[in-house]
């Protein structure tokens, strides 16, 4: 359903350093200064807002990343905190709700965007 997600940043280099650490790989920059990360056919991007206004996070918005195991979620979360992200909500772990059993971890990136690392165990 989704082709890509892009977040705005007021300091793209700071955000690139954070996301390089979070994803464990270096993002690629284009001639407009945008940074992109590709994984399993999806693209996550960082950019200064093209309208020249300051970037800000979406209140109520969350960007979720599919990960392959609870251990990968934990590692993702730890790398994010070590790179300057803020751990938020409950500690990483399983939660059950109307969507089934999920292993989740939440962070805020340096610009305040809410991120979720998610693993769906086999049902």
Automatic annotation (TrEMBL):
Q: What is the species listed in this Swiss-Prot or TrEMBL entry?
A: Sphingomonas limnosediminicola
Residue ranges occupied by any VOC domain in the UniProt entry: 1-120
Q: Name one Pfam family in it.
A: Glyoxalase
Q: Which SUPFAM superfamilies match?
A: Glyoxalase/Bleomycin resistance protein/Dihydroxybiphenyl dioxygenase
Which Gene3D superfamilies does the UniProt record give?
A: 2,3-Dihydroxybiphenyl 1,2-Dioxygenase, domain 1 (3.10.180.10)
Protein name in the entry:
VOC family protein
């Amino acid at each position: 359903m989704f082709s890509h997600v892009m977040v705005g940043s007021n300091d793209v280099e700071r955000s690139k350093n954070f996301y390089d650490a979070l994803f464990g790989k270096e993002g690629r920059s284009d001639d407009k200064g945008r940074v992109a990360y590709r994984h399993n056919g999806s693209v996550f991007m960082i950019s200064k807002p093209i309208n020249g206004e300051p970037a800000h996070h979406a209140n109520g918005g969350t960007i979720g990343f599919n990960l392959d195991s609870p251990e990968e979620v934990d590692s993702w979360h730890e790398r994010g905190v070590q790179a300057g992200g803020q751990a938020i909500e409950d500690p990483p772990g399983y939660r059950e709700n109307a969507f089934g059993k999920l292993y989740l971890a939440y962070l805020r990136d340096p610009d305040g965007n809410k991120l979720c690392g998610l693993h769906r165990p086999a049902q």
